[in-house]
Amino acid sequence: MIKEKIKILNIVGARPNFMKIAPIHRLMEASEKIEPILLHTGQHYDRIMSKIFFTDLELPEPQIYLGVGSGTHAQQTGQVMIELEKVVLELKPDLVLVVGDVNSTLAASLVATKLQIPVAHVEAGLRSCDRTMPEEINRIVTDSVAEYLFITEDSGQQNLLAEGVSPDKIFFVGNVMIDSLLFFKNKARGSDVLNRLNLDHQPYSLLTLHRPSNVDNQQNFIQILNAFEKIERKIPIVFPVHPRTRKMIDQLDLGARVEAMKNFRLIDPLGYLDFLHLMENATFLLTDSGGIQEETTVLGIPCLTLRENTERPVTAELGTNVIVGMDTDKIVNESFRILAGEFKKGEVPPLWDGKAAERIVGILEDKQ
Question: Which residues are catalytic?
Answer without folding.
Answer: 210
